[in-house]
């Protein structure tokens, strides 16, 4: 059932019910009022005759009501003798009980009022059929405009509903005209107040779709650009393995091929992560996340990489840090920062990770003993695919870009500094504090060393 049909059903059915009740009630009340009025007229006619009249004077009395349409039967007696009757074609027997009563004459029922006035007995009657006809006529005159009014309302309601839904039809046409390359927002100017939230929600959705489409286009462009060289290298290494002249050359070629496949896989993962973060407008889940747990898990996962380079890595300061956010994204941030530190730290170097509680903030720092990033390049270091001059370490240039995007989505600030103790780079991520820390914890650096 359409919205229009539902609105018409909700409007017209109650309107019909109320119309029947109101018109029926008005008709009944009006008939009762007219009946009461006619009773008053019977009494007024009877009481309006003076007690001292000559017989000839009664012939001059002619009682008409409602412009002569409904005649009243007037009869006057003295004793048992009827001395006057207003019409000769019908008459009522004299009754003795004063007041109102119902009498029948030849199968026709009459409403009668009898009064004693001096020597006279005055009796006034009116046919019940005539009374009912008059009451119906007067009541219908009253309710006819009401019936017409309700009919007009019933006819106007569908037009009003159609006009009210015209805005939705227009919005539907405008949305149908949108294209994935042209997702400009709807103009809310002049829209009804009830439609404004809908337009705003649609514009929000269009904005998200635009971001998703843009992220998809950037992903395709980045993937085609960044994967071209690794795939060409993989193809060359496969050819070298196929052309190897000895088992030793073949083994070396396969090891190199495995390393290239691993680097290419990491590049694809980072491209997908970048695309996903670009497409999403805000953090989907904002539960309380304990950063300490994430850091420890990341250190365990990256320990083999550090072991391979004999890097001394550990958690040197461990204040409890609880922040609102998405656990998966925060894990990706920590993994990228520690992975970058390990990759750019020379063999036998050192990487220190720390969590600090400040005044309303939590700081995550990752320091290394690598070459660092020159001051002039730090502004661009968060750009996608940026790789500083002189770097020979294999990488995609996406790690810091991903970390920056996740930090922004969590209202955190990420900065690059000189590592005061290790001489390399220090990456600091400052999170807003969700709630006061209840357990400041200072770790023993030696107990948290993984390598």
From TrEMBL:
Instruction: List residues of the Histidine kinase domain.
Output: 222-435
Give the CC-aspect GO terms. Answer: plasma membrane
User: What broad class describes the main subcellular location of this protein?
Assistant: membrane
Keyword list, A-Z: ATP-binding, Kinase, Membrane, Nucleotide-binding, Phosphoprotein, Transferase, Transmembrane, Transmembrane helix, Two-component regulatory system
**Localized where?**
Membrane
Q: How does it sit in the membrane?
A: Multi-pass membrane protein
Q: Which GO terms describe its molecular function?
A: ATP binding; phosphorelay sensor kinase activity
Q: Which CDD domains does the protein's record reference?
A: HATPase, HisKA
- Top-level division of the source organism's lineage: Bacteria
The answer, when asked if Nucleotide-binding is one of the entry's keywords, is yes
Looking at the keywords, is ATP-binding present? yes
PROSITE patterns assigned: HIS_KIN (PS50109)
Report TM segments: 142-165
Q: Which Gene3D superfamilies match?
A: 1.10.287.130, Histidine kinase-like ATPase, C-terminal domain
According to UniProt, the reaction catalysed is: ATP + protein L-histidine = ADP + protein N-phospho-L-histidine
Q: What is its EC number?
A: 2.7.13.3
Query: PANTHER family from the entry?
Result: SENSOR HISTIDINE KINASE YKOH, SENSOR PROTEIN QSEC
Protein name, entry field: histidine kinase
Organism phylogeny = Bacteria, Pseudomonadati, Pseudomonadota, Alphaproteobacteria, Sphingomonadales
